[in-house]
Amino acid sequence: MEQPEQNVAAQTETTTELPKPAALQDMQPSDVPVSGPTVFETKNVSIYYGSFRAVTDVSLAIHENEITAFIGPSGCGKTTVLRTLNRMNDLVPGARVEGEVHYRGASLYASGVSPISVRRRIGMVFQKPNPFPKSIYDNVAYGPRINGIRNKAKLDEIVEKSLHQAALWDEVKNRLNKSGLGLSGGQAQRLCIARTLAVEPDVVLMDEPCSALDPIATGRIEDLMRDIRSQYTIVIVTHNMQQATRVSDRTAFYSVLRDEKSDTRTGVLVEYGRTAQIFEDPQDSRTQAYVTGRMG
Amino acid sequence: MTAMVAPGQAPDLREPKGWRRSKNRIMTTLMVVAFVLTIIPLGFVLFTVIAKGASIISWQFLTGSPIPPNVLPAGIGGLWPAVLGTLLITGLATLMAVPLGVLGAIYLNEYGGKGWLAALIGFMSDVMTGVPSIVMGLFIFSIWVLHFGYSGLAGAFALGCLMLPVVIRSSYEMLRLVPDPLREASYALGATKSRVTVTVVLPAAIGGIVSGALLAIARAAGETAPLLFTILTVTTANPNVFSGPNTSLPSQIFSNATQPYVGAQDRGWGAALTLIVICFILMIAARVVTARFTRYSR
Questions:
Q1: Which of A44, A138, A152, B162 has its CA 20 to 30 A from that of A219?
Q2: What ipTM did this prediction achieve?
């Protein structure tokens, strides 16, 4: 008897909620001071390739429905850290992770954790567009199919929805059965994003997704990232600092630590914070040098 | 050596005269000569076989049975037993060698990694490529024919053993060409290793695998030596490939070519032309199939 009353109460609550003030809607994402729940939490993570220590001592927390950017010079290990978040580094022989990586409270590297289950929740878009040599439709339907969806109507719906989300539908709707390799670089990358979104992941990892694209295609992908931010948590590695300021809510700056004695280079996380703070008020002198362009 | 350009004058961008230009001409000529030298034997073989074999080819020659005794002139009987034998034995050998070879290649490239077992199998398969075909025939003779008698099956074993390393090697090379980013894209969607292999790697490599397999089949269809000790080369058609002596086009050519009778020799030339045409059809099929399977790769 109590049940319906509660529902009514909940409904009235939502309907009486005031619309957001216009000023708040126009605010940049980085200005919104509220943090969502933590999606990833890493503690003192070091990553090795064989005996080579690629990255050391990375501790950060990545929040839900935010875009987190990893920036830093080449060889600083930002891609390595990214690939640790969905266990893609398992595919590299000799790769090893020390420290703790938690995903929504579960340890990613605990024994018994299946990388397959991890990757079904945490998708990835790669630096170079890598569509399968299949039709556009089959590219997008690939993920749902390996998850056991066989129903044609359901697949059609997923393909259309994903291509809409990736802002590609209008360009390809009349040639869904043409090869995915016939698309331009920017279209192919959006196809890869659609393919990733089709499995409805929780997190989308992006490894320099625009580095092979021209500014117009880059702009499209940035728009698309802002569009899907409300439904996904995004982590993006980028070489382009303007891109980080344009799209991200938080930024992690990595740098390279050189050991003169053994002549080895190890990536370190120098500073992590809200994007506006990292770029306008960096606390570390190395961050300052990098974001002001005084250091490569 | 910087070319001086007078102000206001367009620079001379033509290839400078001298050694580089001569070298280019010499090398181009050498390549054309090499190409012609390669073509000559092929041309002669085709010309001779067509000139001597075309006149005897007829519907009756292809479908008549049994193969007439050597003393009889051309125009009597036909080679159907040999055509049938070649198709059956080569087909059976294909069924044995191609699936096994492709699976072996998948193991070597996708699963074996740098392990000792994969290294050993790869090495053994390469060694197997070097085994002379007559030795392979003797091997099957000693382990199979001596116990179970001559049969098309024994011939298929011998041909299969010859095809296997070729299929493994060509499939392996094709799988190696599949770019890793494709595999990664599939893994990133939560695919298992077997899924990645079946739905991404194999489709991407299938064109090359099929054409490699068809080349191995065409090669096996023309083998004589491994069949000499395994099928006995009889003159009657034997549609049961699993038991009883059989015959094939290459072994028929071999036995006819050593005869003093004109009729038998003519039948040998006809058999040679038939075999070439069968192989030719397989090659064309390889091209068509490859083109069809790679329709999404462009």
A1: A138
A2: 0.83
The token duo for B215 is 């080349």
Across the interface, of B113, B182, B187, the residue whose CB is closest to A132 is B182
Q: Is the pLDDT of residue A7 over 70?
A: no
Q: Which of A190-199, A210-219, B10-19 shows the highest mean pLDDT?
A: A190-199
Pairing of strands A264-274, A250-259: antiparallel
- Beta carbons of A93 and B113 less than 8 Å apart: yes
Distance separating alpha carbons of residues B245 and B154, to the nearest angstrom: 10
Residue A128 structure tokens: 């170079």
CB within 8 Å of A134: residues ≥ 6 apart: A142, A179, A180, B203, B296
- B-chain residues near A91 (CB < 8 A): 183-184, 187
Question: A181 contacts in B (CB within 8 Å)?
Answer: 296-298
SS3 B111: helix
